[in-house]
């Protein structure tokens, strides 16, 4: 089974739809999309180039080891059942391999950004729809419930906590970093603004503090990358633009434009932000307890005592649950992803916008990983990270990976080669 010539656009569109179905996960049926990817991967195994690309990728072996060890230990501790065991073992690996052998090898790199947006929008729709649906029926995300919990219509009125909503919209909020990127593609700019504003609204509706930090960090990170990639003259213009925008936003907020200042000061999000200092956040205490617990209980088992239900940190939660070895494997996998990202920044064949978008996405992932119990609250979010990691691994190898996909047809809705 080879994807080349005129067949590529058909397959790309098909796999875009499959990916959208996976990350939107309507009524928890995303598994059907994963089954389709599994069939595709198995069909590609006879292709020696594909098999070698998988087997020669260190990230694949690290993730495989992590999935095996984590799944087996969690099952032995009876933290998960047999079905969840299969999910933990296969889902991250399937998406990583698909990103590695298909998406990351698309010759027209502009198409890769379509898959980035599928991940962002799929997750964002879940979080946004939860807030809108809950607000419509209860008047507020706080009414009708004893705590910050919403109902999601896409999952059959399943309850989703404020933490879960925050995880879903984190990537949409991270688009703040590309809002100020100069581009002539008005539709793309409008799409970024719409996703960001709705995601930020969903986060604030549940008084989630992490969303604001993601927004600020994404802007700062993309700005730093701009300074690195651009000339000194352009850097001066960029810095001036950011300073002007910051001053303008502060001024408009202080004059209470559209009553925004009043609404913010009276909001539950503001009350929660000012009611607890970040320096006194109980998560910091939980981090220390979980880290020390790995030395006392190197095989995990959730035996170390925490002041919270979880450590609220992806790596430490893994260590607390399954011990030091999965913790180290996940740490290595994460660091390899970061290393691949920096290689991509040095690749002159990739557009600047792709690099900025990838920067924003990784900001959303890693900051969420640092402060939320992702594996317990939303394992699909971690699978999304594995998908992006597979793409990064493929892109970072450049010409070492001959493209599987060779397209001779133009894009139906083209992005600019470099929209900046």
Automatic annotation (TrEMBL):
**Segments passing through the bilayer:** 58-79, 85-103, 115-140, 160-181, 186-206, 212-229, 241-258, 314-333, 353-371, 377-395
Claim: Metal-binding is one of the keywords in the record = no
Q: Is the keyword Plastid assigned to this protein?
A: no
Q: Which UniProt keywords apply?
A: Membrane, Transmembrane, Transmembrane helix
Show the PANTHER family listed in the entry: LIPOPOLYSACCHARIDE BIOSYNTHESIS PROTEIN PA4999-RELATED (PTHR37422:SF13), TEICHURONIC ACID BIOSYNTHESIS PROTEIN TUAE (PTHR37422)
Descriptive protein name:
O-antigen ligase domain-containing protein
- State the organism of origin: Acididesulfobacillus acetoxydans
């Amino acid at each position: 089974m080879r994807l080349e010539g005129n067949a590529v656009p058909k397959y790309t569109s098909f796999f875009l739809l499959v990916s959208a179905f996976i990350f939107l996960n309507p009524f928890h049926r995303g598994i059907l999309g994963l089954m389709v990817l599994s069939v595709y991967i198995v069909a590609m195994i006879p292709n020696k180039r594909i098999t070698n690309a998988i087997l020669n990728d260190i990230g694949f072996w690290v993730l495989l080891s992590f999935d095996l060890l984590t799944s087996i230990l969690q099952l032995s501790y009876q933290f998960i059942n047999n079905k969840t065991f299969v999910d933990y073992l296969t889902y991250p690996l399937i998406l990583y391999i698909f990103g590695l052998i298909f998406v990351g090898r698309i010759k027209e790199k502009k198409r890769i950004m379509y898959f980035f947006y599928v991940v962002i929008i799929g997750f964002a729709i879940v979080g946004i729809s939860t807030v809108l649906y809950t607000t419509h029926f209860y008047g507020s995300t706080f009414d009708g419930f004893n705590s910050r919990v919403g109902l999601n219509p896409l999952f059959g009125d399943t309850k989703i906590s404020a933490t879960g909503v925050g995880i879903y919209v984190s990537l949409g909020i991270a688009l703040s970093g590309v809002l100020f990127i100069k581009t002539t593609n008005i539709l793309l700019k409008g799409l970024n603004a719409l996703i960001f504003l709705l995601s930020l609204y969903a986060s604030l509706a549940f008084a989630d503090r992490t969303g604001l930090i993601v927004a600020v960090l994404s802007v700062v990170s993309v700005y730093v990358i701009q300074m690195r990639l651009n000339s000194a003259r352009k850097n001066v213009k960029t810095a001036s633009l950011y300073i002007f925008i910051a001053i303008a936003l502060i001024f408009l907020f202080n004059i209470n434009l559209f009553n925004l200042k009043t609404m913010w000061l009276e909001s539950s999000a503001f009350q929660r932000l000012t009611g607890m200092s970040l320096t006194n956040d109980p998560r910091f205490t939980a981090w220390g307890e979980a880290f020390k617990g790995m030395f006392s209980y190197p095989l995990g088992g959730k035996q170390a005592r925490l002041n919270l239900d979880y450590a609220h940190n992806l790596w430490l939660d893994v260590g607390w649950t399954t011990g030091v070895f999965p913790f180290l494997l996940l740490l290595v996998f994460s660091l390899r992803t970061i290393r691949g990202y920096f290689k991509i920044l040095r690749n002159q064949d990739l557009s600047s916008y792709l690099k900025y978008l990838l920067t924003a996405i990784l900001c959303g992932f890693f900051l969420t990983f640092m402060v939320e119990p992702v594996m317990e609250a939303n394992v699909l979010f971690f699978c999304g990270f594995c998908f992006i990691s597979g793409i990064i691994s493929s892109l970072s190898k450049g010409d070492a990976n001959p493209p599987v996909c060779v397209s001779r047809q133009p894009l139906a809705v083209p992005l600019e080669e470099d929209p900046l």
